[in-house]
Amino acid sequence: MPIATARPLEHPAREEIRLEAVLHALADPMRLQVVRFLATLGEGEAATCSAIDLAISKSTVTHHFRVLREAGVISQVYRGTAKMNALRRRDLDALFPGLLDTVLAADAAQRRRVR
Amino acid sequence: MPIATARPLEHPAREEIRLEAVLHALADPMRLQVVRFLATLGEGEAATCSAIDLAISKSTVTHHFRVLREAGVISQVYRGTAKMNALRRRDLDALFPGLLDTVLAADAAQRRRVR
User: Fold this and answer.
1) Closest chain A residue to B101 measured between Cα atoms?
2) What is the DSSP string of A8-58?
């Protein structure tokens, strides 16, 4: 296995997560789509990046997932060569009660209205 | 009065306001500070840009207020040569129920924890 795949991915600890970074991470339609998908998974479940059909290049997908991870919105762990992604719902709900659900509801309302 | 001050300022109509733009506008500590201040005003009240002590250059202040206005978070109208700013709470609450209050609460929680 190449060394690169074994490199642990950096995550902010719960207390390092900042509202501004979370809002920035959510302020993008592609990243909102990722969060929307991950929010449908059960607790403890994770999905590969390719499980979400984003219709953009692989490097752009990687970028968006990294923004979400570095903001503390998702966790990413390697399983073999694939990254498994999960929403950090427990951390976000503890820090910013209701924020994630309110944003997801706002996103759903907008999609009903606009598309 | 110079013509520039009479130029009407462009605002998105309520139905043109997009969640991604609102989240982006809120994803900045200076802009959050502006929103926090404007949220303390009563309905129908407005404040000049200089009423909020941001400790940054005037051009940067202007930039931040413009981002907020173009996202639909605030309204800006000229009164003489001063811009009067107000939160578009009614529009935001109608489009994205609870979002503004949840973000303001998250911001308050973070400031209690971090500063």
Assistant:
1) A99
2) PPP---GGG--HHHHHHHHSSHHHHHHHHHHTTSPTT--EEGGGS---S-H
